[in-house]
Fold this sequence. Notes:
The structure holds 2 protein chains of 2 kinds.
Chain A: H1 2-35, E1 53-57, H2 61-70, E2 77-81, H3 84-92, E3 98-102, H4 103-112, E4 116-118, E5 124-132, H5 137-153, H6 155-163, E6 185-190, E7 193-194, E8 198-201, E9 204-206, H7 208-220, E10 223-228, H8 231-240, E11 245-251, H9 254-259, E12 261-276, H10 287-296, H11 301-339, H12 343-358, H13 361-372, H14 380-405, H15 409-417, H16 422-452, H17 464-475, H18 479-510
Parallel strand pairs in A: 1-2, 1-3, 6-10, 6-11
Antiparallel strand pairs in A: 3-12, 4-12, 5-11, 5-12, 7-8, 8-9
Chain B: H1 2-11, E1 12-23, E2 26-37, E3 41-45, H2 52-58, E4 67-72, E5 75-76, H3 84-89, E6 91-94, H4 106-116, H5 122-135, H6 151-163, E7 169-173, H7 181-196, E8 200-204, H8 208-214, E9 217-222, E10 225-230, H9 232-237, H10 242-251
Parallel strand pairs in B: 3-8, 3-9, 6-7, 7-8
Antiparallel strand pairs in B: 1-2, 1-4, 4-5, 9-10
Magnesium ion is lined by residues 52-53, 173-174 of chain B.
Amino acid sequence: MQRMNSRRKSILSAMHIAILAMFLLVSSFALTACGSKTAKNTVFSVDDIPGKTIGVQLGTTGDIYVSDYEEDGSNTKVERFNKGADAVQALKQGKIDAVIIDSQPAQAFVDANNDLTILEEEFVEEDYAMCISKSNSALKNRINEALEYLKAQGTLEAIINNYIGENAGKTPYVSPANVTRNNGTLTVATNAYFSPYEYYEGGSIVGIDMDMCQAIADYLGMDLHIEDMEFDSVITAVQSGKADIGASGMTVTEERLKNIDFTNTYTTASQVIIVRDDNASASGANIGEKFKSDFLTANRYQYILKGLGNTLLITVCAALLGIIIGFIIAVIRSNHDMTGHLKIANFLCNIYLTVIRGTPTMVQLLIIYYIIFGSVNINKIIVAILAFGINSGAYVAEIVRSGIMSIDIGQSEAARSLGLTYRQTMVNVIFPQAVKNVLPALTNEFIVLLKETSISGYIGLTDLTRGGDIIRSITYDAMLPLLGVALIYLVIVMILSTFVKKLERRLRSNERR
Amino acid sequence: MSADNKNTQNDIILEVKNMTKSYDGHVVLNNINTTIRKGEVISIIGPSGCGKSTFLRSLNLLETPTDGQVLFHGTDLTDPTVNINHIREKIGMVFQHFNLFPNMTIKDNLMLAPMKVAQMPKEEASALADSLLKRVGLSDKADTYPNMLSGGQKQRVAIARALAMNPEVMLFDEPTSALDPEMVGEVLSIMKELAQSGMTMIVVTHEMGFAREVSSRCMFFADTIIKEENTPAEIFDNPQTDRLKDFLSKVL
Ligand SMILES: Nc1ncnc2c1ncn2[C@@H]1O[C@H](COP(=O)(O)OP(=O)(O)OP(=O)(O)O)[C@@H](O)[C@H]1O
Ligand SMILES: [Mg+2]
């Protein structure tokens, strides 16, 4: 009978999940349907830009040039997105009037969205180069030497033609067979959302920049290592020594030259303007096709699976670390509260709590990655575990402390009067009661933690959210990858809360006050 | 003479020397001196807030005296180098509000200290718990949790829990004050049996009947000191100070 009941309950909660998921899907369909009635296009040439809302990718040259309009009194608004794909999505939905972006990715976006078009008139011409630390002129000279060699040999042209133009795919770059790689590793920072220069294909990062870097590494006798990160992190990574060079379709600008050096240029590109095409019918791919191309084609669901694995790994390890830190701090603080001892330790704990709770988690993550481990080559997952664990520890500490303080002082007096040590009293008497009291709050904290790991993408880690983003950048479909990712988070959270509800019920049945 | 002296020395369990306790300059106990011998049953009476609990809790250092010494078999508890946990094993304590551990069964409440502190094997601790529960008449409650018991039953468990460490002296802080009147009797009769078995006891109480009947010595606390100290008969029938006369006229 008992068993039947709990079975029925789990069927019920499974139904809850299904209903919620359907609600989510239906409501987003409704939103997409509304989106098809977006405003007419108002930008037909560069002259139309003043006074409009323009989307750019944060930190790109498009961003830099359009920012000039922002200050000229024409009331032009610039919306800066982390990814070109996000800007394009906003354009489709009528939230912005045009997107200024490099011509090659622009072509890819327009090919994938037949309700968008590129204006004939180019916005600006520019040269691409690799960025490199100002203090590394030796490497810069060697790379320039390699670059000039590749240009002279026609290798660079072959690489570019393999990605752009009629003969695309016909001249793939292949490393020479006899390369000896005795000269260490060349670490390249990039932002792999920028087809055809750098993008994900079949689980690895490919593109013009990547092939070129491979050719350079081959010429220099080095191993190549590619680090994927946000575009606006590429320069920071090179500055801090996390990467040797940045190859990310990057244009040389005065602003950037203040912080970083550049190699010789290797190709020219142009910034173009994408606008809505009023003549085209809204894109026709049906949901089934979209699902196929988002998740099944080329096993793209693997990005989600890999991301999910990392998200779970980071969450579980960070939660454990948070519990350890939190308990230690809670014990120190409550001991100080009760006895007045441990003044210095308590002071240090207070600093930790104030700093961690007073700054955003994302900023902490970036500080730990770029500053504290700035010059150390360390696994990003470990960095994320440390950052989220240290962050969570502060919240766990205060939760546990409130739990400890909520236990009647008579409990520890009784235990101590029996001869139990402070530690034995804590472990056997206080903690079991305190933890039970704060279990709901602790679960909540871990649910928050799980969701907060979604910022791991900022240090280039493929977590669940970024796994969805990678698919988004390949298929240019925002809806299904985002909804899929949301659904997975939701399911994990619901499993977690169901589990804790059961645990709570069991603890309560042991003991009613 | 010397043999006599030695005997008395060995009899002394607790000795309080010049003990003073104050909170933020507010003096609660002022220069207390007393000696407690094996087999004594001492009742402590006095008006509310006069420091009875503070005195009792100083004896196992739940309160730290501001000044003076508390000696247990000659060992000064206020000496920071003394391992107070070892001494507390030998000083049982029963609280007004029972302070049973709600996260454990009754039996586990009794077994915790023997196993964790005295390193007693589980089977032995279990047998000990069974016999103690039998002694306080609660064998049938072994596997229930404290919340299932009445106040009187809880206090009997608390007494059994303190006895599990086989203490040399038992401290009681108003053990019946939180009980409904009909439950006071069951707890007092357990305490009476304990006294008759020879246990050394120090009992802060408002139960004047118990103080008069069971205790061998009675201390009246007032005005930060032990105002009067004598046999119960003398204290109750022949009070010396106005303070005590006044107190007795109110409580009797
Ligand atoms: N932690 C403390 N901080 C400050 N003052 C305290 C503290 N504990 C006790 N006191 C004060 O010390 C005095 C004696 O308290 P104590 O509890 O020993 O009295 P008592 O004789 O046991 O009274 P009652 O009969 O009400 O139990 C009281 O005035 C009380 O306010
Ligand atoms: Mg008291």
